[in-house]
Specification:
Nucleotidyltransferase, domain 5, 2 domains, 5-stranded mixed sheet, 7 helices, 10 strands
Length: 226
Amino acid sequence: MRILAIDTALDACSAAIFDTERDRMLAMQSREIGRGHAELLIPLVDEVMKSAGATFDAIDRIAVTVGPGSFTGLRVGLSAARGFALAAQKPAVGVSTLAALTAPLITENEAVPVVAVIDAKHGNLYMQMVGAGGRVLIAPRAVKLREAVRAVALGPVRIVGNGAAMLAAHWPAKSPVPLLVDPRVAPDILWVARIGAAANPERALPRPLYLRLPDAKPFAEQVQRQ
């Protein structure tokens, strides 16, 4: 199976083509840009397709990160993935950003739990905690920083995500120090592809995973509340 993977959920804009039969990345591009996903994504996908020597006829599935993450970035990636899927008549699947951050660490060593944390701004975090065998210990949720610390600082853990440094900085002095603090700004696009390949298209729908409401409100709604 050949997977076209797309990630625009956080600060990176990434695209890749992964061949599951050969367990090989055919082409990949990932750029840390912060903003500007809408302008960069389509040229990036085109570049990856050309580098892999692939056409959409040769793509079996499209995988895209569905969040949590930037509301604007998620809309860009999801719109592109749905458009590609519709035009190519291929299935599109959604991959949780938190799962994509967690997966490589659990695969490397499942004995120590992994906490994936994304900065949700204003002292809030999106988080998920996974233990042995990929068992979800804390389901994806939006929490205050203090709540996150209380929930996970109970034993040895590894922390990954752009909120990792923030969480580690508030770690209780009497709790076991995190064994790893990996402040990566986005998931590895390879793991977006791998999770997407294993996903059930009927269940892993390409829909945004919003764990909280957006900060911005439509102008008409603001007027009605005044």
